[in-house]
């Protein structure tokens, strides 16, 4: 019996000694055979797909945030506006001195006493002496009052947000990690606080309290009613983290609850907390402006954006710039913080952004 040797396949690429070269099909620059499917490396990108830079392995959340912020022009603009407002609030005394007027200084030469105290000149009295014009009747410089109003509004917003985040994070971590009776008590306290009509209760408390520091009182009242939202977010994250392998390993290794909460749980919930914080700030600015607009917030002569808008309502027909200028500053601040917060939420808490 004779055996026939197998005929080699001429279509297969051959190595130097005859057998097929296994890596020849993946050689760079080689054109695939007609009718064969393209390899993953040679597959073209979908038409119209934007090139997106890939994150390096092991990138931290802050590195990912910086990469995404560089990639989004609108977010870069929002970040610039936020930094501008913060810088303006911090340097308000020096900027006011640069303008030449204090927020409570009257300038009777800038108004017309025969027209009910209307500002002299066009656009509300805008001039080289008064960069944003003056208030009707009093002649106070709007530039000085707007920048000092930014200081008051942002101070209350940031301080109230800090109280909300610290209290909410502590309560949420405790409820999620310890569970049982601790979780039941804190959860019922969250429900009780959220069931209050907070705005009406704020108005009542601020109306009753007379001889107190209004900034401290507003910060405390706003912070008291804001923490349950953060606590619920942190509680849900903690429930998903406390049974992870590294937490169990730390517990078996003898780590106490405080060490586990600060070393293992807290870093895991920091992303959603940061994203939630940036979304809280515009709400705090709006709340302070609303309370000042209703007359229960910051009292004159301390300037505030909400207070200025409330006072300008009586002059919106005769001097519209008095109404427009603080309204534009309030709108830009809330919009910039909101866009920045949405971007950070998409980056640091993508699953929460889709729900």
Number of strands: 2
Give the averaged pLDDT, no decimals. Answer: 80
H/E element order: HHHEEHHHHHHHHHH
Q: Largest beta sheet: what is the strand line-up?
A: 1-2
Kindly name the structural category: mainly alpha
What ranges have pLDDT less than 50 throughout 5 or more consecutive residues?
Answer: 1-55
- Rounded to the nearest angstrom, the radius of gyration is 31 Å
What is the CA–CA distance across the termini? 74 Å
Q: Give the CA-based shape.
A: elongated
In quaternary terms, these chains amount to single chain
Helix content: 55-70%
The helix tally amounts to 13
Profile the largest sheet.
Answer: 2 strands, antiparallel
Beta-strand content? under 5%
Structure write-up:
- This protein is mainly α and 355 residues long.
- The protein has 13 helices and two strands, in the order H-H-H-E-E-H-H-H-H-H-H-H-H-H-H.
- It has helices at residues 61-71, 73-90, 92-99, 142-178, 180-195, 198-208, 214-224, 227-241, 245-252, 257-293, 305-312, 320-348, 350-354, and strands at residues 111-112, 118-119.
- The longest helix has 37 residues, at 142-178.
- Mean pLDDT is 80; it is low at 1-55.
Question: Can you give keywords for this protein?
Answer:
disordered N terminus; mainly alpha; 60% helix; 355 residues
Secondary-structure blueprint of this entry?
Layout lengths: L60 H11 L1 H18 L1 H8 L11 E2 L5 E2 L22 H37 L1 H16 L2 H11 L5 H11 L2 H15 L3 H8 L4 H37 L11 H8 L7 H29 L1 H5 L1
Antiparallel strand pairs: 1-2
